[in-house]
Amino acid sequence: MKKRRKLNTNNVMIVLVFILMLSFCICIIVKSDLFDVKKIDVIGNKRVTKSNIMKELNINLNENIFAYNFKDMKNKLIKNPYIENVEIKRKLPNKIIISLKEKEIFAVLKDEDNYCYIDKKGNLLEELRGSNESKKDLIVDVDYSVDDNKSIKFKNYKTKENVFKTLNYLKEEGIYRKINYVNLKKESNIEMLTRSNIKILLSNDDNLDYNISRVSKILIDLQNKNTNGGTINLNYGKLAVYSPEG
User: Fold this and answer.
1) Domains: count for the chain
2) Where are the bilayer-spanning segments (predicted)?
3) For 160-176, how does the pLDDT look when each residue is reduced to its tens digit (9 = 90+)?
């Protein structure tokens, strides 16, 4: 009986020694330069540059891959107004992969020489003064301001409602990308300009969705006729008037 106990004790000691040695070896390997970061891949970024990400996270090559707290890194990046979601992964032995999902610019708000990029919820993405760098996004000329908390403040609730109502109708009709400029300075009337230089005039009333659907059909007809320029006027009730350029 004593001999069996002694054997069991010896077996336990052997197992413990083995575990300690294995843990020691793993610790040595993990801390070796085998796991020093050699490459950092950034995926899904368009507006946010890799250099800005590296600077924000303070990532350096040749540091141990296990030294980084990915949760803290994610929390830092998600503060960037352009970033909607972040995933950070290790690809052993020496690579970090940062996958971003960026917010899309829903519209460019314009007030005199000030421009603001906003997302689909109306959140401020970026504020520019004097010039607009985003040439492909729709510009909305409207009264607004930016408060100390970097939030967009429209002149009143109706102004905000007009912005998102108009833009959403354009998206629903599939002509959002065809429009270059929308003037919402006047509450009762809306003026638009297409990328083919066609001016659109319409009333801002309860028939706005219907009139924008009419605009969509008229633009298709003009496109089929290879017609650019001119004015589409929908301020005559059910009558749509197109005036050629000149």
Assistant:
1) 2
2) 12-31
3) 999 999 999 999 999 99
